[in-house]
Specification:
Length: about 150
């Protein structure tokens, strides 16, 4: 995340970090970003990040990344988040997760229409076009959220 923040700042971007208090105590916060928001815990961090997001972009990462991505998918399924979700599948990193989501659909734990909630790209340069071309998602999706 530090390299991403540095790259965005180098291009004149604005970077807002959100960390729970215990991470600030451990000095895990990036001092070079535009703004650092300190919240009570991990749950509040995820809530703040999704409520302020226009889009979610998942880069290869660890369990926290997977947790945040799946939470975004779940919230979008319930129409509590309506923005684009883009998975940057560099070197096929997310293939197992994407296969698991396809299995959820084929086993009828999710509706086939749910596959339109996210898009997958393999190169960083494809992320912005994927955000801009994302299919619209609105509260009518709740009608098939609880299959």
């Amino acid at each position: 995340m530090g390299a991403l923040a540095a790259g965005a700042l180098a291009e004149g971007g604005k970077v807002i970090g959100v960390i729970p208090h215990f991470m600030k105590e451990l000095e895990w916060g990036n001092k070079d970003i535009t703004e650092l928001r300190v919240v009570g815990d991990i749950h509040e961090r995820k809530r703040v990040m999704i409520q302020d997001a226009h889009a979610v972009v998942a880069l290869p990462g660890g369990s926290g990344t997977l947790d945040e991505l799946l939470e975004a998918v779940s919230l979008k399924r319930l129409a509590l988040f309506l923005g684009p979700i883009v998975v940057l599948n560099t070197r096929s990193y997310f293939d197992p997760l994407l296969h698991a989501l396809e299995l959820c659909i084929s086993e009828r734990f999710m509706d086939p229409r749910h596959q339109a909630m996210w898009s997958v790209v393999s190169e960083p340069g494809e992320v912005l076009p994927a955000i801009h071309s994302a299919l619209p998602w609105d509260s009518s999706s709740r009608s098939f959220a609880g299959i």
